[in-house]
Amino acid sequence: MSESANDIGSDAVATDSPRAKTIGDTLLDVKDLHGGYGPIRVLHGLDFHVAEGEVVVILGANGAGKTTTLRALSGKLDATGSVMFGDEDLISKKTADIVRMGVAHVPQGRGTLPELSVEDNLHVGAYIRKDKEVRADIDRWYDVYPVLKERRHQRAGSLSGGEQQMLAVARALMSRPKLLLLDEPSLGLAPLIVQDLFERFRRINQETGTTMLVVEQNAQLALSIADRGYVIESGTISIQGNAHELMHDDAIRKAYLGV
Ligand SMILES: Nc1ncnc2c1ncn2[C@@H]1O[C@H](COP(=O)(O)OP(=O)(O)O)[C@@H](O)[C@H]1O
Ligand SMILES: [Mg+2]
After folding, report:
1. Other residues' Cβ atoms within 10 Å of the Cβ of residue 80
2. Fold of domain 24-102+177-256
3. Is 199 in contact with 169 (CB distance < 8 Å)?
């Protein structure tokens, strides 16, 4: 197994980790986050954090406030509280600045430009970059998602749901984010496709060290790749723990794992 971070072979989607991963200092520290839509208050003081290198999942039922939370983190919603990203508070920053600081957001329902080709979507994802490695990165994500390479000249809108989700993720990764926000990547996809998608998230995290915050209703799969997790209910965090604890938590098993 190569140690190169650039070498994520598509044929090498393994379940066990190729090397021990490193969890670093706190990268994202959210305190007392409030926000909503005009008079409709949705988030009622959320506290959570994500350390460098972690995969953290926020579980929650439909309408719990998962999407609203990610929108607040990426400057797409009027919110109050503090959202420390390294030494900087994102709370009053604009989306474009937050992207430049290293936060990429794959929105719910996929973040692709349907009229553009697959390859042009990837180029657009790199718009903040000035380096000369954009081409190399495109090829790298083609290695991770070979179907995107096959379809590189096709309109993004003509791809299947699963392929569009892969493209949305690859496009977000083209900005070389420190933190990747994923909003319900499993939504509307067949179970086998979802499993494959999550397995590749795990590998991307392990091999590139990209920190990930995933919000999901699919607790089983999300917890299977996560280090830690939180449960959000009616705009507050109700349960938190490491992924293993949460998978064995009775309340979670009843509510989200169908046990
Ligand atoms: N644009 C909006 N305007 C008003 N209310 C909204 C809007 N988007 C979401 N909401 C409400 O905010 C709450 C949380 O929604 P959301 O964050 O999308 O939940 P989740 O992603 O967990 O399913 C829901 O009650 C929803 O109806
Ligand atoms: Mg949502």
Report:
1. 14
2. Rossmann fold (3.40.50)
3. no
CA–CA gap between residue 77 and residue 69 (Å, rounded):
9
- Distance (Å) of CA 4 to CA 8, 79, 91, 168: 8, 40, 35, 24
Token pair for residue 65? 């406030």
Kindly calculate the radius of gyration of the chain based on its CA atoms and give it in whole angstroms.
18
Give per-residue pLDDT as tens, 19-78: 568 899 999 999 999 999 999 999 999 999 999 999 999 999 999 999 999 999 999 999
Nearest-CA neighbor of 66 among 107, 16, 32, 20?
107
- The CA distance from 126 to 141, in Å, is 12
For residue 61, give the ligand nearest its CA. 1
Instruction: Ligand 1 pocket test: pick from 33, 44, 66, 67 the residue with the most ligand atoms within 8 Å of its Cβ.
Output: 67
The residue ranges of every structural domain in the chain are: 24-102+177-256
CA 140 / ligand 1 centre spacing (Å): 36
Assigned token pair, 177:
């984010």
What ligand 1 atom has the least distance to the C-alpha of 232?
22
Quote the ligand 1 centre to 229 CA distance (angstroms). Answer: 21
Gap between the terminal Cα atoms of the chain: 38
The protein residue whose alpha carbon is closest to atom 3 in ligand 1 is 37
Does the global pTM surpass 0.85?
Answer: yes
> Model confidence over 100-156: pLDDT tens digits?
999 999 999 878 999 999 999 999 999 999 899 999 999 999 999 999 999 999 999
Q: Which ligand is nearest to the CA of 65?
A: 1
Q: For ligand 1, which residues put their CB under 6 angstroms from it? A: 37, 40, 42, 60, 62-68
Which residue's CA is minimally distant from atom 6 of ligand 1?
Answer: 37
How much distance in Å is there from the Cα of 100 to the middle of ligand 1?
27
